[in-house]
Model the fold of this input.
Amino acid sequence: MKNYSLKLTDENALELLRTNSIGRLQYVLRFITLLSHMEDDCYSIALNGDWGSGKTFFIKQVKLILDTYNPISQLSEDIREEVKSLEEEGFSYPANYTTVYYDAWANDSHVDPILSLIHATISSNQSDYTVARQREIGNAAAAIADAVTERGISNALKSLRGTDQLASIKERESIKELVKDFLDALINEHGDRLIIFVDELDRCKPDYALSLMERIKHFFDDERVTFVFAVNLSQLQHTVKSYYGSEFDATRYLDKFFDIQMGLPPVNYENFLTVQLGIPTQILSDGVCIETAKHFRFSLREMERYVRLYKIARKALANISTGFSTQNGKVFSAMYFVPIMLGLQMSDMTSYNKFLSGKDCGPLLEILLSPNIRINTKWLCNQNENFDENERLFKSRDGNSVLLEDRLKEVYDAIFKNSRGNGYREIDIGQLSFSENTRNAIIEITSLLSPNSDYEFR
Done:
């Protein structure tokens, strides 16, 4: 079984740039242009997006391009050449930007955010500090680097907290000056400007998240540094309120840390689902799958999960469509209902249960009435009816007409309301027949335990 969740590697970031499967390449380049216009002061940018919306991949792609054009970075030549092959005519790539990626959530057990951030910088591919070379990158940074190289960050922090080392540093020189020394050495050796990407801040423990922001504001106020925070601002506001109280003005509090707040651009759903996740659009249900993901506004991570479920069920859908005549309502129900039912299961189990009990066909109608969905209306026509595509009406010879929306609701009611408890007694609509057996068949497929489910999909 294929796992569609992409790991955050340079290779995968490059693949998403190459295929542009989520339609964000132009926004990545625009963001780099923004960074190149922020060279006169210390700036802090909040890149806002919901969890699972692709914030991390976005900043990883920005970082990958910046590293490509910094000759000091340790990217392989193969990756450099491939990134450069994606150049857009007329686009100016800034050179000599040193970049650091810092996962705040992975480090929120550390004692001091500043020491942790410096450690991440030293440990990144941008720093070539080694014990053998004994590079002087500032007294505090050198002391931390020595400790990290020999004992690891937790011991380094413990030693700094548990001894007089930190106190003696304070006596000799302020921490802020030591940070400046560290930045001087790093930037002078590795580039013209330092870009620090801070990720997952909104997932951190409140005290660590706020301490990190406040210490960055105080100690890293350097005109050669830009901070990019990939955050869910609404969650970060909850973090602030949980620390300072529900009545605290979290919005105004965060405003003092971020010079610019900008939203993560939307993804290209169709392209991501068809190119990246391999929805082939060969059967009717594939189009319903794409519209379902759009309807529920699934994040990138949620789309990966949804496609995994859909692909397990897809073989059962294909088998049922070839194993029964067009008179059998199982065909129609499987093609048009199952992808929506899978989406409902992921989105809201309460809504899913209401759907199964015949109480709410709203999501079904909203998705199937999309102009992007091709409904096989011939199956739904009675013998004396024709379907008018322009008016979306079933028109009979006697002058009566039925909206497509109302005919679809008839089908829904036949499966989930009127057939319940009726056993195998059939309800005819157009050329199709529905019964409780129809209902049981599509619920079986949706459960992913159908004998025809495919667990070996690629």
In short: The chain is about 50% helix and 10% strand. Residues 418 and 427 are 8 Å apart (CA to CA). Confidence is low (pLDDT under 50) at residues 127-140, 144-166, 168-173, 322-326. Residues 300-323 form the longest helix (24 residues).
